Amino acid sequence: MSELTGMAGFASPMKEKTNAKRRRLGVELCATLALALSLLVAATAVSIGVARAQAHALATVGARL
Fold this sequence. Notes:
Elements: H1 13-64
């Protein structure tokens, strides 16, 4: 249920636009942070995979010598 504000009538359209803009900015900020975090996780996973592949390749080459 919504909270009562104690104000009778309707809020001005400017106030509603300001609140909507703040809410949208918050959502955009969260989305940007989530995207940055996911890119960091993906880059880390790729780096670990490349390092493991190189270690495996060196171990395979070393076993043939």
